[in-house]
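My current task is to audit a protein record that another person submitted. I need someone to confirm that the token line plausibly describes how this chain folds. Take the sequence as given and treat only the tokens as open to question. This is what I was given:
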Amino acid sequence: MSVRPDPNFIPVQDAAPKSGFIKTALEQTSGARGPKGWQLFLGAGVVIFYGFSRLGASNKKRSEQELFERQQRYALVPLLQNEADRVYLMRRKKILEREAQIMRDVPGWQVGASTYYGSRWTPSHVVDGDKNIQKK
């Protein structure tokens, strides 16, 4: 069983003065509290739209620049391939001369003949064995 309070008991509570509280300067000068919600939403939308438009423009400019660079590389490929072929032929000539010098005493040796049997041509791995040639 619980003890019930006395029904005639009146609690004492703090309350505002009967004349009210004194007005403060903060309440009088506070004014507007900032932009409204729809204004914030609209401003954020404008900023996001502007950012995405700049991103799209920069992506387009970058892709155009990459295309231009690729076209320049494609134009240089024949020149670079020609240079690589020239270096390959020079090294191959040196290797064949060296092979002829080394194998001159072997009867029936054919200089530059493939050691494989087949009709398909593949470039051999042409690497000079002479270290002095490789340094040049």
The mean pLDDT is 84. Residues 20 and 129 are 106 Å apart (CA to CA).
